[in-house]
Design a protein that fits this description.
alpha+beta, 2 domains, single chain, 18% strand, OB fold (Dihydrolipoamide Acetyltransferase, E2P)
């Protein structure tokens, strides 16, 4: 691989990293706080390539050929092309955010239970609450604590219940990136089929106004609380699709 091709490759990889930050695709892979680091990494790659080009323009000489020969002898030219594989996948066939398939792979594993929020529930008739926060609050006290008798709104995608009966509402929680995603879910007590009949899942995202059934988030249920559906409507996938 010549120096010119190597520098062009670095510029291409760096530009793609910056692009996925600008258009928001990066949130399919990492949490928002890491997006600036991805952008900086892309800018650094572009900067290194441009510095190398500027150096070659200032000091052209026969040394370039020796560098290329050394790269060829050690195979580094061939391995450098591997940089293109993940970049082309992201650029040409950007994978969507993880969804019900990732929840299915988790099987009957206990859902992620995060730290119980110290702040009170937001005010309002049915405030929006992250699924991971609701599960943590429900698992902390048998009577539901601040959730007792309160309607809240959850946003998540619909998946079959773990016991095969009915539906659950799920989200994926990530600490760093999509590779460490863990499912968090609630079981829907939905006698009026407001969310949908069992079997009509397919990564449908819904806003569901729910009311916690106290005492249902136990070790025996895998810390999956049951909630009664008061109202529901189908919505587009939020961005970001993960909870943190």
């Amino acid at each position: 691989m010549t120096r010119e091709v190597r520098n062009a490759l670095l510029v291409f990889v760096g530009a793609v990293l910056v692009l996925i930050v600008v258009d928001g695709t990066v949130l399919h892979y990492v949490r928002p706080g890491m997006a600036p680091l991805v952008a900086v990494s892309g800018a650094v790659l572009i900067g290194l390539a441009l510095l190398d080009v500027a150096r070659d323009l200032r000091c052209p000489g026969p040394g370039d050929g020796a560098d290329d020969e050394d790269e060829h002898d050690h195979g580094s030219g061939r391995s450098a092309w591997l940089l293109l594989v993940p970049v082309l996948v992201v650029l040409l066939a950007a994978p969507p955010s993880l969804g019900s398939d990732a929840v299915d792979l988790a099987g009957s594993r206990t859902v992620a239970v995060g730290r119980v929020p110290e702040e009170p529930l937001p005010p309002g008739e049915a405030p929006a609450v992250p699924v991971v926060d609701l599960v943590a609050r429900a698992a902390a006290t048998a009577d539901g604590g601040a959730l007792a008798g309160r309607d809240v709104t959850l946003t998540g995608f619909v998946v079959p219940a773990r016991d095969g009966r009915g539906l659950d509402l799920a989200r994926l929680v990530i600490s760093c990136c999509a590779a460490d995603a863990s499912p968090v879910r609630v079981h829907l007590d939905d006698p009026r089929a407001l969310v949908g009949a069992p079997g009509t899942t397919g990564d449908r995202w819904v806003d569901a106004r729910i009311r916690l059934v106290p005492g249902t988030a136990t070790r025996g249920t895998g810390f999956v609380p049951t909630v009664t559906v008061v109202d529901a409507r189908e919505v587009a996938e939020p961005s970001p699709a993960y909870e943190y």
